[in-house]
Protein backbone atom coordinates (compact mmCIF):
# COMPACT_ATOMS: atom_id res chain seq x y z
CA UNK A 1 0.00 0.00 0.00
CA UNK A 2 1.39 3.41 -0.96
CA UNK A 3 1.94 6.09 1.65
CA UNK A 4 -0.82 8.22 0.10
CA UNK A 5 -3.39 5.41 0.27
CA UNK A 6 -2.27 4.42 3.77
CA UNK A 7 -2.91 7.98 4.97
CA UNK A 8 -6.23 8.09 3.10
CA UNK A 9 -7.24 4.75 4.66
CA UNK A 10 -6.42 6.00 8.13
CA UNK A 11 -8.53 9.12 7.56
CA UNK A 12 -11.53 7.20 6.22
CA UNK A 13 -11.32 4.79 9.16
CA UNK A 14 -11.17 7.68 11.63
CA UNK A 15 -14.12 9.39 9.91
CA UNK A 16 -16.53 6.49 10.54
CA UNK A 17 -18.13 8.09 13.65
CA UNK A 18 -18.72 11.25 11.61
CA UNK A 19 -20.37 9.19 8.88
CA UNK A 20 -22.65 7.53 11.43
CA UNK A 21 -23.61 10.92 12.84
CA UNK A 22 -24.34 12.25 9.37
CA UNK A 23 -26.50 9.22 8.55
CA UNK A 24 -28.52 9.65 11.75
CA UNK A 25 -29.05 13.33 10.96
CA UNK A 26 -30.13 12.64 7.37
CA UNK A 27 -32.38 9.77 8.47
CA UNK A 28 -34.45 12.26 10.45
CA UNK A 29 -35.49 13.86 7.15
CA UNK A 30 -35.15 10.79 4.90
CA UNK A 31 -35.76 7.53 6.79
CA UNK A 32 -34.04 5.55 4.04
CA UNK A 33 -30.67 6.65 5.40
CA UNK A 34 -31.39 4.77 8.61
CA UNK A 35 -31.95 1.46 6.81
CA UNK A 36 -29.33 -1.31 7.01
CA UNK A 37 -26.57 1.01 8.22
CA UNK A 38 -24.26 -1.95 8.87
CA UNK A 39 -24.01 -2.51 5.11
CA UNK A 40 -22.10 0.77 4.85
CA UNK A 41 -19.33 -0.91 6.82
CA UNK A 42 -19.41 -4.27 5.03
CA UNK A 43 -21.59 -6.09 7.56
CA UNK A 44 -24.46 -8.16 6.19
CA UNK A 45 -27.20 -10.24 7.77
CA UNK A 46 -27.68 -12.61 4.83
CA UNK A 47 -25.14 -15.49 4.68
CA UNK A 48 -23.08 -15.83 1.52
CA UNK A 49 -24.31 -19.34 0.75
CA UNK A 50 -27.88 -18.12 0.38
CA UNK A 51 -26.71 -15.54 -2.15
CA UNK A 52 -24.62 -17.86 -4.32
CA UNK A 53 -26.67 -20.88 -5.45
CA UNK A 54 -24.72 -21.26 -8.71
CA UNK A 55 -21.18 -22.30 -9.45
CA UNK A 56 -18.71 -19.56 -8.59
CA UNK A 57 -16.59 -20.69 -11.55
CA UNK A 58 -19.32 -19.58 -13.98
CA UNK A 59 -19.33 -15.77 -14.55
CA UNK A 60 -23.10 -15.83 -14.99
CA UNK A 61 -23.41 -17.68 -11.68
CA UNK A 62 -21.76 -14.67 -10.02
CA UNK A 63 -23.06 -11.17 -9.64
CA UNK A 64 -22.75 -8.43 -12.20
CA UNK A 65 -22.22 -5.54 -9.80
CA UNK A 66 -23.40 -2.05 -10.74
CA UNK A 67 -22.71 0.90 -8.47
CA UNK A 68 -25.03 3.89 -9.00
CA UNK A 69 -24.50 6.41 -6.23
CA UNK A 70 -27.66 8.52 -6.54
CA UNK A 71 -30.88 9.02 -8.48
CA UNK A 72 -29.41 10.22 -11.76
CA UNK A 73 -26.80 7.48 -11.91
CA UNK A 74 -29.44 4.86 -11.05
CA UNK A 75 -31.61 5.97 -13.93
CA UNK A 76 -28.62 5.78 -16.26
CA UNK A 77 -27.79 2.34 -14.85
CA UNK A 78 -31.35 1.20 -15.61
CA UNK A 79 -30.73 1.83 -19.31
CA UNK A 80 -27.51 -0.18 -19.27
CA UNK A 81 -29.07 -2.92 -17.15
CA UNK A 82 -31.93 -3.44 -19.63
CA UNK A 83 -29.39 -4.03 -22.41
CA UNK A 84 -27.28 -6.33 -20.20
CA UNK A 85 -30.30 -8.45 -19.31
CA UNK A 86 -31.08 -8.69 -23.02
CA UNK A 87 -27.57 -9.88 -23.86
CA UNK A 88 -27.10 -12.01 -20.72
CA UNK A 89 -30.44 -13.64 -19.85
CA UNK A 90 -30.42 -14.92 -16.30
CA UNK A 91 -27.69 -12.56 -15.09
CA UNK A 92 -27.79 -11.78 -11.38
CA UNK A 93 -27.49 -8.16 -10.34
CA UNK A 94 -25.71 -6.74 -7.31
CA UNK A 95 -26.81 -3.11 -7.09
CA UNK A 96 -25.18 -0.59 -4.72
CA UNK A 97 -25.94 3.04 -3.92
CA UNK A 98 -24.83 5.90 -1.73
CA UNK A 99 -28.09 7.87 -1.37
CA UNK A 100 -31.61 7.04 -0.23
CA UNK A 101 -33.17 8.34 -3.45
CA UNK A 102 -30.82 6.17 -5.50
CA UNK A 103 -31.68 3.10 -3.45
CA UNK A 104 -35.43 3.74 -3.68
CA UNK A 105 -35.19 4.09 -7.45
CA UNK A 106 -32.94 1.03 -7.70
CA UNK A 107 -35.51 -1.19 -5.98
CA UNK A 108 -37.60 -0.99 -9.15
CA UNK A 109 -34.80 -2.65 -11.14
CA UNK A 110 -34.49 -5.84 -9.07
CA UNK A 111 -35.44 -9.30 -10.31
CA UNK A 112 -35.64 -12.48 -8.23
CA UNK A 113 -32.12 -13.47 -7.20
CA UNK A 114 -30.79 -9.91 -7.36
CA UNK A 115 -29.36 -8.16 -4.30
CA UNK A 116 -29.31 -4.49 -3.34
CA UNK A 117 -27.05 -3.07 -0.61
CA UNK A 118 -25.30 0.17 0.27
CA UNK A 119 -21.91 0.97 -1.23
CA UNK A 120 -19.25 0.11 1.36
CA UNK A 121 -17.47 3.00 3.03
CA UNK A 122 -14.02 3.09 1.43
CA UNK A 123 -11.97 1.60 4.27
CA UNK A 124 -9.84 -1.49 3.55
CA UNK A 125 -11.90 -3.55 6.00
CA UNK A 126 -15.33 -2.62 4.64
CA UNK A 127 -14.18 -3.16 1.06
CA UNK A 128 -12.64 -6.55 1.95
CA UNK A 129 -15.86 -7.72 3.62
CA UNK A 130 -18.02 -6.46 0.73
CA UNK A 131 -15.97 -8.21 -1.95
CA UNK A 132 -15.70 -11.36 0.14
CA UNK A 133 -19.44 -11.46 0.69
CA UNK A 134 -20.56 -11.03 -2.91
CA UNK A 135 -17.56 -12.06 -5.09
CA UNK A 136 -18.81 -10.25 -8.21
CA UNK A 137 -17.72 -11.34 -11.67
CA UNK A 138 -17.33 -7.68 -12.67
CA UNK A 139 -17.90 -4.25 -11.14
CA UNK A 140 -19.41 -1.36 -13.12
CA UNK A 141 -19.07 2.08 -11.54
CA UNK A 142 -21.40 4.69 -13.03
CA UNK A 143 -20.08 8.07 -14.20
CA UNK A 144 -17.71 9.40 -11.51
CA UNK A 145 -17.52 7.00 -8.57
CA UNK A 146 -13.85 6.02 -8.30
CA UNK A 147 -12.70 5.03 -4.79
CA UNK A 148 -9.04 4.16 -4.08
CA UNK A 149 -9.52 1.20 -1.74
CA UNK A 150 -12.37 -0.22 -3.80
CA UNK A 151 -10.17 -0.17 -6.91
CA UNK A 152 -7.23 -1.72 -5.03
CA UNK A 153 -9.44 -4.42 -3.50
CA UNK A 154 -10.83 -5.44 -6.88
CA UNK A 155 -7.36 -5.60 -8.41
CA UNK A 156 -6.15 -7.77 -5.56
CA UNK A 157 -9.01 -10.23 -6.12
CA UNK A 158 -8.78 -10.15 -9.92
CA UNK A 159 -12.23 -8.59 -10.32
CA UNK A 160 -12.43 -6.37 -13.42
CA UNK A 161 -13.68 -2.92 -12.37
CA UNK A 162 -14.82 -0.45 -15.01
CA UNK A 163 -16.11 3.12 -15.15
CA UNK A 164 -19.12 3.40 -17.48
CA UNK A 165 -20.79 6.54 -18.83
CA UNK A 166 -17.67 8.22 -17.49
CA UNK A 167 -17.41 11.97 -17.19
CA UNK A 168 -14.85 14.29 -15.63
CA UNK A 169 -15.15 18.05 -15.84
CA UNK A 170 -12.23 20.47 -15.73
CA UNK A 171 -12.87 21.42 -12.10
CA UNK A 172 -12.88 17.79 -10.97
CA UNK A 173 -9.68 17.14 -12.92
CA UNK A 174 -7.92 20.01 -11.15
CA UNK A 175 -9.03 18.68 -7.77
CA UNK A 176 -7.89 15.16 -8.63
CA UNK A 177 -4.50 16.36 -9.83
CA UNK A 178 -3.94 18.07 -6.46
CA UNK A 179 -4.09 14.61 -4.87
CA UNK A 180 -2.47 12.86 -7.82
CA UNK A 181 -0.58 10.39 -5.63
CA UNK A 182 -3.98 9.00 -4.63
CA UNK A 183 -6.06 9.67 -7.73
CA UNK A 184 -3.67 8.39 -10.41
CA UNK A 185 -3.38 4.84 -9.00
CA UNK A 186 -7.16 4.74 -8.51
CA UNK A 187 -8.00 5.74 -12.08
CA UNK A 188 -5.07 3.79 -13.49
CA UNK A 189 -6.16 0.68 -11.60
CA UNK A 190 -9.47 0.42 -13.45
CA UNK A 191 -9.79 -2.31 -16.08
CA UNK A 192 -11.56 -0.06 -18.59
CA UNK A 193 -13.16 3.36 -18.86
CA UNK A 194 -15.88 4.21 -21.39
CA UNK A 195 -16.20 7.98 -21.66
CA UNK A 196 -19.19 10.08 -22.63
CA UNK A 197 -17.30 12.60 -24.79
CA UNK A 198 -13.92 13.27 -26.37
CA UNK A 199 -13.26 16.00 -23.80
CA UNK A 200 -14.06 13.63 -20.93
CA UNK A 201 -11.68 11.07 -22.44
CA UNK A 202 -8.82 13.59 -22.59
CA UNK A 203 -9.28 14.56 -18.95
CA UNK A 204 -9.62 10.95 -17.79
CA UNK A 205 -6.45 9.96 -19.63
CA UNK A 206 -4.65 12.83 -17.87
CA UNK A 207 -5.25 10.85 -14.65
CA UNK A 208 -3.98 7.62 -16.20
CA UNK A 209 -7.41 6.10 -16.80
CA UNK A 210 -7.49 3.31 -19.42
CA UNK A 211 -10.08 4.84 -21.77
CA UNK A 212 -11.19 2.04 -24.11
CA UNK A 213 -14.03 3.81 -25.89
CA UNK A 214 -16.11 6.97 -26.24
CA UNK A 215 -19.70 5.77 -26.33
CA UNK A 216 -21.78 8.91 -25.65
CA UNK A 217 -24.16 9.49 -22.76
CA UNK A 218 -26.37 6.61 -21.63
CA UNK A 219 -29.07 9.08 -20.68
CA UNK A 220 -29.84 9.68 -24.36
CA UNK A 221 -31.22 6.13 -24.44
CA UNK A 222 -33.99 7.00 -22.00
CA UNK A 223 -37.53 6.15 -23.07
CA UNK A 224 -39.97 8.30 -21.07
CA UNK A 225 -42.87 6.61 -19.32
CA UNK A 226 -45.57 6.83 -22.00
CA UNK A 227 -48.48 6.80 -19.55
CA UNK A 228 -46.99 9.57 -17.41
CA UNK A 229 -46.15 11.64 -20.47
CA UNK A 230 -49.65 11.31 -21.92
CA UNK A 231 -51.24 12.22 -18.60
CA UNK A 232 -49.05 15.29 -18.21
CA UNK A 233 -49.82 16.48 -21.73
CA UNK A 234 -53.54 16.01 -21.12
CA UNK A 235 -53.31 18.11 -17.96
CA UNK A 236 -51.34 20.76 -19.85
CA UNK A 237 -54.03 20.93 -22.55
CA UNK A 238 -56.62 21.71 -19.88
CA UNK A 239 -54.51 24.04 -17.74
CA UNK A 240 -55.88 27.26 -19.24
CA UNK A 241 -52.42 28.83 -19.30
CA UNK A 242 -49.05 27.74 -20.68
CA UNK A 243 -46.98 25.92 -18.04
CA UNK A 244 -43.37 26.79 -17.19
CA UNK A 245 -41.48 24.46 -14.87
CA UNK A 246 -38.46 25.06 -12.66
CA UNK A 247 -37.17 21.49 -12.96
CA UNK A 248 -35.07 19.69 -10.34
CA UNK A 249 -34.39 22.94 -8.50
CA UNK A 250 -31.58 23.04 -5.97
CA UNK A 251 -31.22 24.98 -2.73
CA UNK A 252 -31.32 28.74 -3.31
CA UNK A 253 -32.78 28.58 -6.81
CA UNK A 254 -36.39 28.98 -5.70
CA UNK A 255 -35.40 32.22 -3.96
CA UNK A 256 -33.70 33.35 -7.18
CA UNK A 257 -36.93 32.53 -9.00
CA UNK A 258 -38.99 34.63 -6.58
CA UNK A 259 -36.60 37.55 -7.08
CA UNK A 260 -36.83 37.10 -10.84
CA UNK A 261 -40.62 37.38 -10.73
CA UNK A 262 -40.25 40.82 -9.18
CA UNK A 263 -37.59 41.90 -11.67
CA UNK A 264 -39.78 40.79 -14.59
CA UNK A 265 -42.88 42.66 -13.43
CA UNK A 266 -44.66 39.62 -11.99
CA UNK A 267 -44.35 41.19 -8.56
CA UNK A 268 -46.73 43.01 -6.31
CA UNK A 269 -47.23 46.73 -6.15
CA UNK A 270 -44.30 48.84 -4.97
CA UNK A 271 -43.82 49.22 -1.27
CA UNK A 272 -44.47 45.64 -0.16
CA UNK A 273 -42.29 43.88 2.33
CA UNK A 274 -39.15 42.30 0.86
CA UNK A 275 -39.75 38.73 -0.28
CA UNK A 276 -43.52 39.07 -0.53
CA UNK A 277 -45.59 38.85 -3.70
CA UNK A 278 -49.09 40.28 -3.82
CA UNK A 279 -51.33 37.30 -4.49
CA UNK A 280 -53.92 39.08 -6.61
CA UNK A 281 -51.28 40.96 -8.61
CA UNK A 282 -49.49 37.68 -9.29
CA UNK A 283 -52.64 36.07 -10.71
CA UNK A 284 -53.47 39.07 -12.86
CA UNK A 285 -49.99 39.67 -14.26
CA UNK A 286 -48.63 36.18 -14.67
CA UNK A 287 -49.30 34.92 -18.19
CA UNK A 288 -48.14 31.42 -17.23
CA UNK A 289 -48.83 28.66 -14.75
CA UNK A 290 -45.69 27.97 -12.70
CA UNK A 291 -44.64 24.45 -11.68
CA UNK A 292 -41.68 23.86 -9.34
CA UNK A 293 -40.18 20.39 -8.86
CA UNK A 294 -37.35 20.35 -6.26
CA UNK A 295 -34.49 17.95 -6.90
CA UNK A 296 -34.36 16.50 -3.37
CA UNK A 297 -37.44 15.18 -1.55
CA UNK A 298 -36.25 16.40 1.84
CA UNK A 299 -36.75 19.96 0.54
CA UNK A 300 -40.40 19.60 -0.51
CA UNK A 301 -41.79 21.08 2.72
CA UNK A 302 -39.10 23.76 2.85
CA UNK A 303 -39.92 24.95 -0.68
CA UNK A 304 -43.65 24.94 0.05
CA UNK A 305 -43.06 27.14 3.11
CA UNK A 306 -40.85 29.50 1.11
CA UNK A 307 -43.52 29.99 -1.56
CA UNK A 308 -46.35 30.40 0.93
CA UNK A 309 -44.22 32.84 2.92
CA UNK A 310 -43.94 34.95 -0.24
CA UNK A 311 -47.72 35.19 -0.40
CA UNK A 312 -48.36 32.56 -3.06
CA UNK A 313 -50.91 29.78 -2.96
CA UNK A 314 -49.37 26.34 -3.52
CA UNK A 315 -50.95 23.16 -4.84
CA UNK A 316 -48.92 19.99 -4.18
CA UNK A 317 -48.90 17.01 -6.53
CA UNK A 318 -49.47 14.74 -3.52
CA UNK A 319 -52.89 16.39 -3.07
CA UNK A 320 -54.05 16.16 -6.70
CA UNK A 321 -56.72 13.73 -7.78
CA UNK A 322 -57.67 13.52 -11.45
CA UNK A 323 -56.14 16.91 -12.29
CA UNK A 324 -53.96 19.65 -10.77
CA UNK A 325 -55.69 21.87 -8.22
CA UNK A 326 -55.69 25.59 -9.19
CA UNK A 327 -53.05 27.67 -7.38
CA UNK A 328 -50.42 30.31 -8.06
CA UNK A 329 -47.73 27.61 -8.09
CA UNK A 330 -47.92 23.86 -8.55
CA UNK A 331 -45.36 21.96 -6.46
CA UNK A 332 -44.11 18.60 -7.70
CA UNK A 333 -43.61 16.79 -4.40
CA UNK A 334 -43.37 13.23 -5.73
CA UNK A 335 -40.60 10.90 -6.88
CA UNK A 336 -40.39 8.99 -10.15
CA UNK A 337 -42.76 11.24 -12.08
CA UNK A 338 -40.46 13.49 -14.08
CA UNK A 339 -42.01 12.32 -17.36
CA UNK A 340 -45.40 13.48 -16.06
CA UNK A 341 -43.98 16.87 -15.08
CA UNK A 342 -42.14 17.37 -18.37
CA UNK A 343 -45.31 16.37 -20.22
CA UNK A 344 -47.20 18.96 -18.20
CA UNK A 345 -44.67 21.72 -18.93
CA UNK A 346 -44.37 23.74 -22.13
CA UNK A 347 -40.84 24.87 -21.20
CA UNK A 348 -38.46 23.95 -18.36
CA UNK A 349 -35.90 26.07 -16.53
CA UNK A 350 -33.12 23.63 -15.68
CA UNK A 351 -32.36 23.35 -11.97
CA UNK A 352 -28.76 23.31 -10.81
CA UNK A 353 -27.75 25.57 -13.70
CA UNK A 354 -28.67 28.91 -12.10
CA UNK A 355 -26.35 28.27 -9.15
CA UNK A 356 -22.81 26.89 -9.57
CA UNK A 357 -23.94 23.26 -9.23
CA UNK A 358 -23.36 21.89 -12.73
CA UNK A 359 -26.96 21.50 -13.87
CA UNK A 360 -29.36 18.58 -13.71
CA UNK A 361 -30.29 16.21 -16.53
CA UNK A 362 -31.52 18.25 -19.53
CA UNK A 363 -31.54 15.09 -21.72
CA UNK A 364 -34.60 13.73 -19.90
CA UNK A 365 -36.53 16.93 -20.51
CA UNK A 366 -35.69 16.96 -24.22
CA UNK A 367 -36.60 13.27 -24.58
CA UNK A 368 -40.04 14.22 -23.25
CA UNK A 369 -40.39 16.91 -25.94
CA UNK A 370 -39.88 19.79 -23.51
CA UNK A 371 -37.53 22.64 -24.60
CA UNK A 372 -35.11 23.80 -21.92
CA UNK A 373 -33.77 27.13 -20.66
CA UNK A 374 -30.30 26.86 -19.14
CA UNK A 375 -28.30 29.01 -16.75
CA UNK A 376 -24.55 29.38 -16.97
CA UNK A 377 -23.62 26.33 -14.87
CA UNK A 378 -23.97 23.10 -16.87
CA UNK A 379 -20.59 21.45 -16.41
CA UNK A 380 -22.22 18.10 -15.45
CA UNK A 381 -23.74 17.96 -18.95
CA UNK A 382 -21.38 20.30 -20.79
CA UNK A 383 -21.41 18.68 -24.23
CA UNK A 384 -25.10 17.79 -24.18
CA UNK A 385 -25.93 21.37 -23.17
CA UNK A 386 -23.77 22.83 -25.94
CA UNK A 387 -25.30 20.52 -28.56
CA UNK A 388 -28.83 21.25 -27.35
CA UNK A 389 -28.26 25.00 -27.64
CA UNK A 390 -26.72 24.62 -31.11
CA UNK A 391 -29.68 22.58 -32.32
CA UNK A 392 -32.37 24.84 -30.90
CA UNK A 393 -33.86 22.61 -28.20
CA UNK A 394 -32.23 24.60 -25.39
CA UNK A 395 -31.45 28.26 -24.85
CA UNK A 396 -28.78 29.60 -22.51
CA UNK A 397 -29.33 32.76 -20.45
CA UNK A 398 -27.16 34.78 -18.10
CA UNK A 399 -29.21 34.35 -14.92
CA UNK A 400 -32.58 33.40 -13.47
CA UNK A 401 -34.08 36.79 -14.33
CA UNK A 402 -33.34 36.33 -18.01
CA UNK A 403 -34.47 32.72 -17.78
CA UNK A 404 -37.91 33.64 -16.43
CA UNK A 405 -38.27 36.38 -19.03
CA UNK A 406 -37.22 34.16 -21.94
CA UNK A 407 -39.43 31.23 -20.86
CA UNK A 408 -42.47 33.47 -20.48
CA UNK A 409 -41.87 34.96 -23.92
CA UNK A 410 -41.36 31.57 -25.56
CA UNK A 411 -44.55 29.96 -24.22
CA UNK A 412 -46.61 32.89 -25.47
CA UNK A 413 -45.03 32.69 -28.95
CA UNK A 414 -46.81 29.68 -30.45
CA UNK A 415 -44.74 29.38 -33.69
CA UNK A 416 -41.39 29.61 -31.85
CA UNK A 417 -42.50 27.11 -29.20
CA UNK A 418 -43.77 24.64 -31.79
CA UNK A 419 -40.52 24.90 -33.77
CA UNK A 420 -38.38 24.26 -30.68
CA UNK A 421 -40.57 21.36 -29.58
CA UNK A 422 -40.43 19.77 -33.04
CA UNK A 423 -36.63 19.57 -32.86
CA UNK A 424 -36.54 17.58 -29.61
CA UNK A 425 -37.30 14.18 -31.18
CA UNK A 426 -34.53 14.39 -33.77
CA UNK A 427 -32.05 15.61 -31.19
CA UNK A 428 -32.69 12.62 -28.93
CA UNK A 429 -32.59 10.07 -31.76
CA UNK A 430 -29.24 11.36 -33.05
CA UNK A 431 -27.42 10.54 -29.83
CA UNK A 432 -28.82 7.13 -28.82
CA UNK A 433 -26.80 3.91 -28.68
CA UNK A 434 -24.50 4.16 -25.64
CA UNK A 435 -26.35 1.43 -23.72
CA UNK A 436 -25.80 -1.14 -26.49
CA UNK A 437 -22.12 -0.23 -26.92
CA UNK A 438 -21.46 -0.36 -23.18
CA UNK A 439 -23.23 -3.70 -22.73
CA UNK A 440 -21.21 -5.14 -25.62
CA UNK A 441 -18.01 -4.01 -23.92
CA UNK A 442 -19.04 -5.52 -20.56
CA UNK A 443 -19.87 -8.86 -22.17
CA UNK A 444 -16.57 -8.81 -24.02
CA UNK A 445 -14.63 -8.10 -20.84
CA UNK A 446 -16.31 -11.10 -19.22
CA UNK A 447 -15.18 -13.25 -22.14
CA UNK A 448 -18.77 -14.21 -22.94
CA UNK A 449 -20.87 -14.19 -26.08
CA UNK A 450 -24.19 -12.32 -26.15
CA UNK A 451 -27.12 -14.74 -26.05
Automatic annotation (TrEMBL):
Its EC number is 2.4.99.12. Keywords: Cell membrane, Lipopolysaccharide biosynthesis, Membrane, Transferase. InterPro entries: Glycos_transf_N, Glycos_transf_N_sf, Kdotransferase. It is an enzyme of class 2 (transferase). The record marks 143, 219 as: Transition state stabilizer. It is found in: Cell membrane. The active site is at residue 73. GO terms for cellular component: plasma membrane. Residues 37-222 form the 3-deoxy-D-manno-octulosonic-acid transferase N-terminal domain. One of its GO terms (biological process) is lipid A biosynthetic process. It catalyses: lipid IVA (E. coli) + CMP-3-deoxy-beta-D-manno-octulosonate = alpha-Kdo-(2->6)-lipid IVA (E. coli) + CMP + H(+). Pathway: Bacterial outer membrane biogenesis; LPS core biosynthesis. One of its GO terms (molecular function) is Kdo transferase activity. Involved in lipopolysaccharide (LPS) biosynthesis. Catalyzes the transfer of 3-deoxy-D-manno-octulosonate (Kdo) residue(s) from CMP-Kdo to lipid IV(A), the tetraacyldisaccharide-1,4'-bisphosphate precursor of lipid A. PANTHER family: 3-DEOXY-D-MANNO-OCTULOSONIC ACID TRANSFERASE, MITOCHONDRIAL-RELATED, 3-DEOXY-MANNO-OCTULOSONATE CYTIDYLYLTRANSFERASE. Belongs to the glycosyltransferase group 1 family. This is 3-deoxy-D-manno-octulosonic acid transferase. It comes from Acidovorax delafieldii 2AN.
